[in-house]
# Entry
Amino acid sequence: MSTRLTWMLPALAMVAFGINPALAAQKNDTGVARQVKQGERKPSKEEEIPLPEAWQLKMDEIERHELGKADAKYVAGQFKEAMPLYEAYANAYPKSPAVAYAILRKGRCMQRLLKRKEAIVMLQEILEYFPNTIEMAAPALFYQGQCYFDNGDDANAVKVWAGIARDDGYKVQPIAAFAINQLGDYLVSDNKPDQAVPYWWQVALDFRTQNPKAALYAINQVVWYYIKISPDEGKLREFWAKCAGWDERRVKLADDLATDREYWGRVIQAVRTHARFEATEASKRTACLKYWSAQTEGKFADWDDFQLAGAEFLRSADPSDAGKPAWVARLDQIFEGGKKDADRTIRWMGMMADNGEKAKSQTYYQKLDVKKLTYQQQRAVAAILYGPLAEPELGKFVIMAIDLGKLDDNEKESLAKWLWKLRPPDGDTGMMVNTTISDVPRRTFNLLGWYESCAKDPKYVELVVETADSLRTNETYSKKAIMIKAGVLDKAKRFDEAIAAYRAADEPPKTIFAIAECLVKSNRLEPAIQELRDLEALYPTAKGKAAQTIASYLLKAGPTRKNDAIQECRRIMVTYPKTGESSWAHERLEELNVKVKGGTDAE
# Structure
């Protein structure tokens, strides 16, 4: 037996890696998260091993052709058909350098066909007869480990992964990176993350080019460990330097990482990504986030986002009310350490308001001279006052301080509509702003929109009617105004007036459907059906919907119109086969326990 295989047999190999063999045997579904319990795992392209180019050069044309036929079936996912072709190749060309490849692919076919036990046996042939053909032996071990793992045999899977990581020849093969990562993941599941880190570190450094997918995974795991499990900025900084960043693209390293904003920005991002804890992990959360908050102190005083991240970590370390004073004090300290301009003051005002610190927010508000602010700054302050601070009178004061004469009509319209959309809205201030719009029809139409939003109150219904009528001669707004009027009258159950407005708007087929609905709601079913019959005859794009609406009205009319509804549904199936309306009609007939005769259902 090859010396390369001796480490595979005893459980001592697992012990050497700090793994409890008995525990590994018991893990099964409670251990490492299994990628698949039943069915085929979806392999990444990096898991597939191509025929080495150097081997191809040693093969004659016939050999390449025969092996190519098998590979074509494999690539097409026709694994059952590929297996005998690989076997035939190995038998026909026993001295070919590609025999190990053919056996590997045959074993891989078995694995992909979920014949994992048979695959393990087939792959073992490579380990016994071609152990020093490392390009194929390392993948064979990896695939064996996958088969064991997917079969629930964690003990043997871990044994194989440990063997790959231990062998100087195997562990440098690109596919070995996946196995070493899985070994690390298993150690984490065995509550030994500190033992997993060296393996991930190895993959991160050794496979950045050969297997970037595995390397990036390993990088992420190392960062996770030094952020959450064992917070250590020094180790994290060393890892950044060793890897030249944590992305697929290496970065140009700064001379001093202690003052490198790119590095520290990624640290902040990593803390936000990885330092997440369950409710039961309060003590771990507190220790971790207080550590990272402390790392931000005394650095980059002119970088607010960085400093505020430190405050954020401090607040998250103790999210209870007891932890809030420290967070507020930290924010005050950060503010005092930088420029005290309007933008920063508004930002701090908003942060305090958003976190329920009303008095503190107002303290920052009092630092502002609202008349000297830009329009955008005034809008931002007003949003805080109307919103989280719930101080509408102060909000109105800020709006009144805006120099409306310097705004164009678009800005005025935007401001008025914003005030109307507040909850609760500031209707009066919005109307005041709207009156300053120079385009009279435009401001009238805006006002109509405000009245429409208030039309649950009957007095506003009349205002809608009056305002819409005032725009009836305006080419730009008349149609829209009449439709708004019709909709409001419809909701107010003034159906005859609504119908008249819909007819005046004259936007078929939409207005005809609306008219039919008004007729039905006012107990005039037959006129409604006639409107829809006319619509069906005149507007091809809406005919199916018109017929379906008729059938729907007849169904809702109750037992007295049941036969009419059935007849209409059958007509839809005959007239509009293979449509959504036909499917709908078929479903209604089934609900009525009516046999479907004639017509074609939608496919």
The domain at 508-603 is CATH 1.25.40.10 (Serine Threonine Protein Phosphatase 5, Tetratricopeptide repeat). The longest helix spans residues 212-229. The mean pLDDT is 91.
